[in-house]
Predict the 3D structure of the following.
Amino acid sequence: MAQTDSVNKNYVYQLGFWSAIVSTLLVTIAGITATASIQPFATVVGFLLTSSFLVLMACIHCYASNERKIFSLIGLSFAIVYATLISVNYFIQLTFVRQSAFDVGIFAMDNPQSMMWVIEVLGYFFMGLATLFAAPVFSSGRIENIIKWLFVVNGVLGILTPIGYVFNFPMQILLGGLIVWDIVMPISTALLAYLFWNARTATVHLHI
């Protein structure tokens, strides 16, 4: 039984490492291309990010200690909502909006008044909640504590953004939040890759 648990953990660490690496690359590229309005490349990358982030959150849930799995489970649940909203929105942008012969201005995200911005903001609100609830999973050691507080910062940012949107804050302020996200998220996912790699290495050495 102990050997089976070790094998299962090894799968978690491997998948966690690679999903964190992929998420780091996608978050970095998505942040740069979205800030620079490089379309449709930014939308494609953002669409791919939904899947890698969801896998990463599943690995975090499996990594969590038994007494803290309730937090990772809630985080995973919010990540599913995020992935659903954002992937649907971005697929609409890549297909219906780009290929339609009708006036699709209300759906196009290059229109600041588009209704799809509501889905965008709501989706990243749920990503923020996902990281906020997953944050308590990390409490052992310096790397985990850094991840925890980066997740908290992303969570607070995810909550403040829709508040700013509701109260019609200037777009420059919302873009400022995007720049902070561009910094916080890739650092946190890169540290997660480092954490999972170290956990996998320790498991391998334990059975040599």
In short: The two ends are 18 Å apart (CA to CA). Residues 2-206 form one domain.
